[in-house]
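Lab notebook, bench 4. The sequencing result for the construct came back, and we need a structural model before the next group meeting so we can plan mutations. Quick request posted to the team channel:

Model the 3D structure of this chain.
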Amino acid sequence: MLPFAALALLALGLAYANGGNDISKGIATLVGSGVTNFGSAVVWGTAWTVAGGLLAAFAAQGLVATFSGSGFLAKATSGPAFLSAVAAGAMAWVLLASRTGLPVSTTHAITGALAGAGIVAHGASSLHWAYLAKRIALPLGVSPVISIALIYALFPLLSRSALRAGTYCICIERRVAISGGALAMSAVSSAVVSTATECGESPAVTARVSALDAFHWISSALTSFARGLNDTPKIVAVGIAASGVLGVSAFPFYAAVALAMGAGSLMAGSRVTHTLARRVTEMTPAEGFCANLVTSLLVGAASLAALPVSTTHVSSGAIIGIGLRRGAMSVCWTTVREMLLAWLVTLPAAAVAAGAVFTLLRLRS
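Done. Here's the predicted structure in token form:
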């Protein structure tokens, strides 16, 4: 029972590490374009990530089978040691990357950890390499390219709509209503959509937000929601064996993983957010909105189709695409090179870590 409890805790630790690194993918554009500050953005992204994680229990279960190891390995590995090594290896790399502020893919890390532990357990021939290439490597490699292409294709249309929306405001007006005589007065608040000029001149307006900013907040929520929907089943897959032995049904375990992701987002999400928001390229609110919309569409569609794309790659590709549209000099290529190196190192680093942990656990048993 104790080894399975340890496996469950390691899966929750991986969820925490994922939250600290991946929260940035949905909120970096809010911060980078000046719509809000880090604190508000992190809280907003966390709430929607948890919501997406909870829905994943009903809408994205196909990814659990993909990342449980059954598709990767020709031979099944019994006992909790194997998946504990996978969780520990992936978690170690994601935590290290988060400490250095580099956005990496938890999907990549889990894949590398499964491969590393599988090779130690049964040898390199035990891996279904064609399966890895088709179901994992291809979506992970193609998704950032598609993201950049979509930015180029959709940005002219989306930017015109965004600029038009920027001339409007959603205002909260507070007016005094009189009924039954002067003594029966009450203050009534209502939301009004009006032009920015009219909102600014009306003395009744107590609060307002640009329509473009409102759409940007919504797109950030969609991206964070899609990320939770896509990542939660992958982490659940690592600990699903433990949940069964411990008597924890599916939805409570999904909820625990989603809440652990939320905790990591709140407590450790600022460093990677700073990298994507400030160190890749400058962006306007309209550009940030477009990048988020493309990310949420791609990741959401991939989740429903059980395709294991990386939110890291999709979001980063969209932000890089925004910079490329303004010219190559608008992109900080030093940061991009650091990110690409981290992406390349993720698979072998997680594989080595998981293989080492599995070796230690096997020696102790």
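The mean pLDDT is 84.
Will bring this to the meeting.
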